[in-house]
Specification:
This protein is of the alpha/beta class and 415 residues long. It has three domains: 13-74, Nucleic acid-binding proteins (OB fold (Dihydrolipoamide Acetyltransferase, E2P), Beta Barrel), CATH 2.40.50.140; 137-226; 239-404, 3-Layer(aba) Sandwich (Rossmann fold). Helices cover 20% and strands 29% of the residues. The protein contains seven helices and 22 strands. It has helices spanning 97-116, 244-256, 273-282, 295-304, 318-324, 344-353, 365-377, and strands spanning 13-17, 21-22, 26-31, 34-39, 46-53, 59-69, 124-126, 137-142, 148-151, 158-160, 185-190, 196-201, 213-216, 221-225, 228-232, 263-267, 287-292, 311-315, 332-335, 357-362, 382-389, 398-404. The strands form four sheets. Strands 7-21-22-20-19-16-17-18 form an eight-stranded mixed sheet, with helices on both faces. The chain has a six-stranded mixed sheet with strand order 1-5-6-4-3-2. The longest helix is centred in the N-terminal third of the chain and has 20 residues, at 97-116. It is globular. The model is unreliable at 1-6 (pLDDT under 50).
Length: 415
């Protein structure tokens, strides 16, 4: 194969041995002293990789366009768009489900070791229902011909689709095959009652961005989790896998073990999923502070948990609320930050409040590793970790970390 091109390698094809998996849905290979992050490959394979992006420096990005020696776990993708140049949504359709979970486990372990200095064995647990038909919420884009589709990897280009094998019935299938406003974005969801909800957001015109238009469905979606029914925004935050919410609640409920009459913080609380089970533990004489920056989610939390007077909703950025220092001292803190993580300031504020137990729910292994390392520096080492394949076929993984204050001896009955 040819060597370095000037001014870059974009379009270059090279034969490479594929090395370990890396965070982000690709594997590591090397050529001519540079790292290639190769999608559509598996560790141990020999492939022809075509460079798709070269911005200079020590690495570039590539797709495996030909497999010369396949890994035993390689399978044919179930979707015709899960190929080089196709939809950017699924990263691992070319690996069997067991291998997908092993790859994700390797990523979580590597991130914790490299960014957090923590060596831990990781198992990514399968959720019920298999690898297909699970995604209950999705966003699509509309191409210039009015066709709905998904973005290509690291691109604004729209790949029109006739369906999506990982999408739950009642989502993508109800918007494909129709003509939409060119350049618009579609938000689709199906709730626990199998009701579909679709909104269309027309493209911005200058500085003006028209409000989303509800195509069909209601302003409220009905969901079920944590032994409760929830009325929520169909396009607000809710776990996209139908079993994820209950699984995460079960872990949080077990590890929190909040004392009756105690205080719990639910940070980045959303509509109050974890607050609901924390409220059951602290009881009517306790307090749960549910802190969330999105006003709509806070209002949904207050409405859905109106029967739990011990839940106190606080609207505001978590870092700002903690900086004020007016929350009661916690016995347990649960935080479920966005993909970028909580960050050093929030971790420092939590540690300063000295809760015996912290439970961190994370959808990004790198952010989790960085924050867990900060917690460890402040006397909260990692005590346990569980990981779940809440996003089959993609590189995403949901983790729950248990952190304990080393200055506190756990109660004999603590689970």
């Amino acid at each position: 194969m040819s060597g370095r091109r000037e001014p870059g390698w974009t379009g270059l094809r090279v034969e490479v041995e594929v090395g370990p998996v890396a965070h982000g849905g690709h594997c590591v290979a090397r050529h001519d002293g540079r790292v290639l992050f190769v999608r559509h490959a598996l560790p141990g394979e020999l492939v022809v990789a075509e460079v798709t992006e070269d911005r200079g420096g020590s690495f570039c990005r590539a797709d495996a366009v030909e497999v010369l020696r396949a890994a035993p776990s390689r399978v044919d993708p179930v979707c015709p768009h899960a190929v080089p140049g196709g939809c950017g949504g699924c990263d691992w359709q070319h690996a069997d489900p067991g291998e997908q979970r092993r790859l994700k486990a390797a990523v979580v372990a590597e991130q914790l070791a490299r960014l957090g200095g923590i060596d831990v064995d990781v198992e990514v647990e399968e959720l019920p229902g298999g690898s297909l038909d699970w995604r209950t919420r999705a966003r699509l884009a509309v191409d210039d011909d009015g066709r709905a589709g998904f973005r290509a990897h690291r691109s604004h280009r729209v790949v029109p689709v006739a369906g999506c094998p990982i999408a739950a019935p009642g989502t993508v299938d109800v918007v494909v095959g129709r003509t939409w406003t060119p350049g618009a974005e579609l938000a689709v969801a199906v709730d626990a009652d199998a009701h579909s909800h679709v909104t269309e957001s027309p493209p911005a015109s200058g500085r003006h961005r028209p409000r989303p238009r509800r195509v069909f469905g209601a302003a409220v979606a009905r969901e079920r989790a944590a032994r409760r029914e929830w009325d929520v925004d169909p396009h607000g935050f809710w776990q996209v896998h139908p079993d994820a919410a209950d699984v995460l609640v079960e872990v949080v409920e077990q590890w929190a073990d909040a004392p009756a009459g105690g205080v719990a913080w639910d940070l980045y609380s959303g509509v109050g999923l974890f607050a609901s089970v924390l409220a059951g533990q602290v009881g009517p004489l306790g307090t749960v502070c549910a802190v969330e920056s999105a006003g709509a989610a806070t209002r949904d939390c207050a409405s859905n948990l109106a029967d739990l007077a011990q839940v106190r909703t606080v609207t505001g950025r978590v870092d700002d609320v903690l900086a004020r220092g007016d929350l009661p001292a916690p016995d347990v803190v649960v935080l479920d930050p966005p993909r970028k993580g909580a960050g050093r300031d929030v971790v420092t504020a939590i540690a300063a409040a000295a809760p015996p137990v912290v439970i961190y729910v994370a959808c990004d292994p790198a952010a989790l590793a960085r924050d867990v390392a900060t917690f460890a520096e402040r006397g909260y080492p990692l005590a346990a970790l569980r990981a779940f394949d809440a996003f089959p076929m993609t590189h995403h993984v949901e983790c729950v970390a248990l952190l304990r204050d080393v200055r506190v001896t756990p109660r004999p009955d603590a689970r």
